Each structure stands twice: as structure tokens, then as C-alpha cells.
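As a warm-up, study this chain.
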Amino acid sequence: MTTPTAQTAHPSPTAISVNQLTKSYGSKRVLDGLDLTVPTGSVLALLGPNGAGKTTTVEILQGLRRRAGGTVSVLGEDPARAGRAWRARIGVVSQSSTDMGDLTVTEAVEHISRFYAEPADTAETVARVGLADDARTRASRLSGGRRRRLDVALAIIGRPELLFLDEPTTGFDPEARREFWGLVEDLADDGTTVLLTTHYLDEAAHLADDVAVVLGGRIVAQGAPADLARGEGEVTVSWLEDDEQRSVRTIAPTAVVRGLIERLAGPGGEVPGLQVTAPSLEDRYLELVTAHETAARRTAAVATAA
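Now compare it with the structure written out below.
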């Protein structure tokens, strides 16, 4: 039996709304007019290299850090002024686990449940995250993947409407990652809004309804993983010619292939080494990062020359 997510009587269609968010640390501008919208009930993956501003963004959304400017609404409230009732509506799974190594799984979940007015059932929550067999196991004896499941149990015992997952599968082996993905999918199916930060592009592609890429303190691209990967619709056509690997990016692959067939096809009608490859989310992400870094270097060079 799964525990339903706590919902408001008339849930807003938007769980998170951010407009022109800014934040600086001394002279360093970390967030520079960031805009972000997360629909209620969706899974959004926030991507970006270290230093791009995603951690600061998430901390502001959680009410842990104050912004310099812009507007922020999370579950209908400003996190900078929200109280305990609002905080009970969100769950957080951070990179560092809560130190409860001496408690069993059940004891740890039961302990956290006391902070909520209407917590979910402890046994049901433990079962929901796949830890029923370890209910009496001390947290310190759990494997990394199963300890992460306990972290999720602690985050959802209050039946949150919104769950923050900060790089939840870092250090997992492939099997543990896949199991954890299933847990996130189960939470999303029950209506929980999830904001996920991750460095794994396959994880974002698998779990997210929407992906937002943060670079230089701004969202530079946002959309469904497949749409973001597709970009302008270009694909790569590659082939062998004169013993060399050649390729071209095009929005008209059929025409390119037709020309290659006319020019290079052998007796069997095959073009040597012919491949047509659509870009992946990782390909598109790396393109965005490279373009941003190139532009930043040019700007710095101009500033130095001046």
C-alpha cells in the first residue's frame, strides 16, 4: 500500500515560479536574472556544471538562502518568509545524509515523523522505499544505495507536495541507480512534484518531464529531454570515403543520404560506414556548456584588452 502525497484542497498548476532571480557573493554574480517554472506534479531536472548557480538556486527555493532580487514562489509562498506549515509541505534529500547511524530504519523514520502534525504511517513509508526487509537494521549498516532510500523515507514521511533531490545517485552502482529511479517514478506517479539536480544526463533523460540547463546564473535552455536534445532538428550523417571518416550535420538527412548513394554506393547499394545519428541530451548539454565557456573567454579577453 502506498501513502498518498499530501495535497492542498485546490493545488496550483505551478509548484515553483521564479522570475529574474539574482544573487551575488561579494563581487561575484552567481545568479543573473534566472527564470524558472515547474508545473505541479512534474519532475524537473536542473542541470549545470559546478559554479553555474544551481545549488544557490535550490537553496533559495528551500528557504535556506536569501536572494538579492527577483520574485520566488514555491507552493504559493515566498520561501524567504514562509513558516513551519510551508516547510512541512516540502521534502529534501541532500547530498549528505542525516547522522542517525545508531538508529534502526524504523526508529529513524519514526523519529522524524514526530516533527509533522499528520505524518504518513511509518511502516508503510519504510515499505514504500523498499526497506521493509531492513526495518530493524541500523542505518550505519545499510549499503550506500539503501541508505539513500532511507534518506528518501525521512524526506517523504511528512507527505510532501514537493521533493528536492540533490544528486541522489552519486556513487551508486548501475543496479542501485536503476532501483532508485523506480522509487522516484513511483513518487511522481503519486503526484509529488520533484526537482532533481544531477550530473548524470541519462538520469535526467530517464526521469525528467522537463530539463533546465543553468549556465552563468541563468536558464539557457529548458524543455522536454527529447525536445532539448533535438534542438533545431539537426542529425549527423557519417560515412567512410577514401579511407577517411567523414560527417556532416544537417536538417535534411534524406537528401544527404541520397547524394551519398548516388556518389559512393557499391554494387550492393550500400554506402561504406553510413550512419545517421540523432543527438542525445548529453550532446546538446555539452554544446551549450562549450558555447557558454567560449563566449565567457571572449568576453574576458575583450575586458583584459580594454
